[in-house]
Amino acid sequence: LSLKFGDIGNLKGFVIRFLLTTRYYQLSVQNWFSLHRLQLLYNHSIQATFNATRIYAPASYSYHCEHVSSLQRYDALLIPSSANDLSKLWEVTFIDFQIQGFNIQEGHFAYAKDCASFFSPAILMGLVMSLILLLVLAYALHMLIHLKSLDRHYECKASPAYFAQMKDNDMGEEKEPLRSSGNESYELRNQQFCKIYI
């Protein structure tokens, strides 16, 4: 596929040639095309050659990418074919690049396969935040499961250290009147206390 600039000023005789290949893949049960190589020609002489990487799509689709470039800041989908040729002297960048080599109908591009990665920075941050929230939830559930109930650890006992032993004949009596000057008061004979174990 050749892109000729015709008689546009200094670009007269300048041609950009796209070498496309098509191949049948049994796994997807369809043909795929790929941009194999990009050549820059001037006056029928090859000035630079770039190998294309990751530029492919099903043959019935087109390929679209915001930037197809030889520059690293644009992810360098075009790589100089050799360290010895003049390709390193060229910087090539296509903006809003779309190409379709086969099965073109009525001169319009088919549905485009975009070059955007499935793991963009926004999606990656979302996954990391989801993982952090999941860990917090797992820790909270772990703490709730291992929370000890206080109801199981109440134990009431009579205190031998603070209260005198009761006699057998006084076991049935809960209170004993105290004699004083006209007032009647009672003393609890069987006092209890509770210990709580946590």
TrEMBL record:
Entry's family note: Belongs to the vacuolar ATPase subunit S1 family.
Domain V-type proton ATPase subunit S1/VOA1 transmembrane residues, every copy: 117-154
Family matches, as InterPro entries: Ac45_acc_su, VAS1/VOA1_TM, VAS1_LD
GO BP terms: regulation of cellular pH
Subcellular location: Membrane
Main subcellular location of this protein, as a coarse class: membrane
Species of provenance: Pandion haliaetus (Osprey)
Name assigned to this protein: VAS1L protein
One GO MF term: ATPase activator activity
V-type proton ATPase subunit S1 luminal domain residues: 1-102
Gene: Atp6ap1l
